[in-house]
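Worked example 3 (structure in, sequence out).
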């Protein structure tokens, strides 16, 4: 039974290493995904800014046309003032001149506002565009670096999976069946040590009698709380593992 437990412990160690490789690969992929998402968000914001600049430019053009038309009407009405013969016509032209002068002034003030707004939006758009380009360059470098790292991790994982197959073949089928179910149900941790009468899987205290049985190691011991397979870890072994970690 002790040999069987050693095989299960070795198998757990291998599966933990495989899980570590999977986690590292997922981290690489997640970091790339976050970078791509960041670029996409900035590009969407840039597109929104550019659309706003385009709409504002159209309004600026319309305002300029309105200003030119108002200025032209002022000159036209002033010229007509020289030709009018009645007071009524004179007053009507004066009113039109004042209205168009006011409109010309208002559109001139709006023109300055358009210039300021477009300048500000232009600066924001340029800054955002530079950020996008910078992140895209960085993404290319990260993709190359991550591709190498993922390849290295995948190779290491494949190698250790070969070791795993040999370990599985050496363990009794009924134990493998229990082990596999525990791996799936207990976050990849099926075999755990007992230290200071505590199950290191669920951190619950075990009955003294069961601790003694685990120490003997002559049968398969199961934690009554988390159902994981238990083995005894000597204090010296625990200290050595702590130093390695």
């Amino acid at each position: 039974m002790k040999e069987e437990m050693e095989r299960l412990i070795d198998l757990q160690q291998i599966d933990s290493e495989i899980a570590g490789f999977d986690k590292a690969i997922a981290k690489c992929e997640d970091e790339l995904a976050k970078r791509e998402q960041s670029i996409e968000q900035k590009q969407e914001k840039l597109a929104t800014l550019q659309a706003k600049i385009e709409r504002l430019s159209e309004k600026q053009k319309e305002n300029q046309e309105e200003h030119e038309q108002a200025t032209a009407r002022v000159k036209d009405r002033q010229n007509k003032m020289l030709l009018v013969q009645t007071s009524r016509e004179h007053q009507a032209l004066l009113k039109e001149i004042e209205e168009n002068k006011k409109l010309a002034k208002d559109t001139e003030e709006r023109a300055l506002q358009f210039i300021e707004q477009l300048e500000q939006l232009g600066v924001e758009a340029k800054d955002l565009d530079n950020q996008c380009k910078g992140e895209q360059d960085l993404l290319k470098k990260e993709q190359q670096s991550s591709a190498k790292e993922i390849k290295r991790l995948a190779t290491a994982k494949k190698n250790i999976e070969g070791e795993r197959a040999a370990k599985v073949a050496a363990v009794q089928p009924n134990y493998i069946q229990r082990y596999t179910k525990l791996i799936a149900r207990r976050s990849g941790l099926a075999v755990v040590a007992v230290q200071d009468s505590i199950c290191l899987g669920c951190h619950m205290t075990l009955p003294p009698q069961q601790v003694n049985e685990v120490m003997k190691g002559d049968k398969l011991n199961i934690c009554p709380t988390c159902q994981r397979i238990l083995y005894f870890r000597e204090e010296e072994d625990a200290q050595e593992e702590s130093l390695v970690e």
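Notes: The first helix runs from residue 2 to 81. The first strand starts at residue 191 and ends at 195.
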